[in-house]
Design goal:
With 321 residues, this protein is mainly α. It contains 14 helices and three strands. A hairpin with a 5-residue loop joins strand 2 and strand 3. Helix 2 crosses helix 4, helix 5 packs across helix 9 and helix 6 runs antiparallel to helix 8. It is globular.
Length: 321
């Protein structure tokens, strides 16, 4: 039996290329996870399918050129069964980009995924965070110590700007302007934009910056990371995507409310903007959306409430009277 091919070295080269293109840490993390799991599947998990007529599918690849659509399809099906269709869709996109890079680098003549289609994903309505839940959440960090100041500032920024998780965490001190009340973020596609926030959020951020300087034991400098861990050795480590997710999970447990994913703040921001009559073009500019289709997706779970309130103001029957 031929030894199975390991795509890990090629994937490592691809990830280095992504870093040279200044892709975000979150993008590199997602792509790296997809290729690592695909490599492990080819080495240990893939088994040729056997048809009803007794025919056997392709063996595991022994060379890079042997990687076939059938192998990728088997991995996507495996990922759907093990996790979800949405996660498999994410891995599909990562692998498609990986194989296209291999073609550009002339490592292979053509992508094994060139005729593949992504798995169908049913659009799940992400629930918005209720006012009661928000109140309970912020009540858990009413204290004045560093961690409370930090967690309040992070959650307030999420709520008041609708920024993505990676857009919030991968920020330097210089990206924040409290006088203009804007945060400069790097969004999808490598596009920078300035996101405005309100007076309450500015106050929370100002309190955090003062607490952070005391926490670090020195004035904050423009090129320093904006968010930092808490006690012990974590004091010198930046607060990562994983850390923020764990913080919100912990705060939800303290508040006695269901766990909230950071992306729910983005949906909640969009919902509150719409329900209060905000301009859709302004919403697209703030959130960094390029497609108007996103306007209907975000805050969709609360669409019935917005329709009811709109009808209250626009009812043809009431206007006739």
């Amino acid at each position: 039996m031929a030894e199975r091919y390991d795509i890990t070295p090629m994937a490592a080269s691809w990830l280095r290329a992504l870093k040279s293109e200044n892709k975000s840490d979150n993008t590199i993390r997602i792509y790296g996870n997809a290729t690592r799991q695909f490599a492990a599947f080819l080495l240990d998990g893939y088994q040729p399918a056997t048809g009803e007529d007794g025919t056997t599918g392709r063996p595991a690849p022994a060379e890079l050129d042997d990687v076939h659509r059938e192998h990728v399809q088997a991995y996507v099906a495996h990922t759907i069964a093990r996790t979800s269709a949405s996660n498999a869709h994410q891995h599909y996109r990562a692998l498609r980009t990986f194989f296209n890079w291999l073609v550009d680098e002339e490592e292979i003549d053509r992508s094994p995924m060139r005729t593949m289609r992504p798995p169908t994903v049913e659009e799940a309505e992400v629930p918005v965070i209720s006012e009661d839940q928000l109140t309970a959440l912020f009540r858990t960090c009413k204290g004045k110590d560093y961690v409370d100041r930090r967690d309040t500032a992070i959650m307030m920024l999420f709520l008041d700007t609708g920024v993505r998780l990676s857009e919030l965490t991968e920020r330097r001190v210089a990206d924040l302007d409290l006088d203009l009340m804007v945060l400069r973020v790097l969004g999808k596609g490598g596009r920078w934009r300035s996101v405005p926030f309100g007076r309450t959020c500015a106050t929370a951020l100002d309190r955090y910056l003062r607490a952070a300087a005391k926490h670090k034991g020195k004035p904050l400098e423009d090129d320093m990371w904006l968010w930092w861990g808490s006690g012990g050795r974590h004091r010198m480590h930046r607060f990562t995507v994983w850390g923020v997710g764990q913080m919100i999970k912990r705060r939800c447990a303290e508040a006695g409310i269901p766990n909230i994913h950071p992306h729910q703040f983005r949906h909640t921001f969009a919902h509150l903007w719409k329900i209060n009559g905000g301009n859709e073009d302004d919403l697209m500019r703030i959130t960094g959306w390029k497609s108007r289709q996103m306007l209907s997706r975000y805050g969709a779970s609360a669409g019935a409430e917005r329709a009811r309130l709109a009808h209250r103001d626009l009812s043809p029957g009431d206007r006739l009277q």
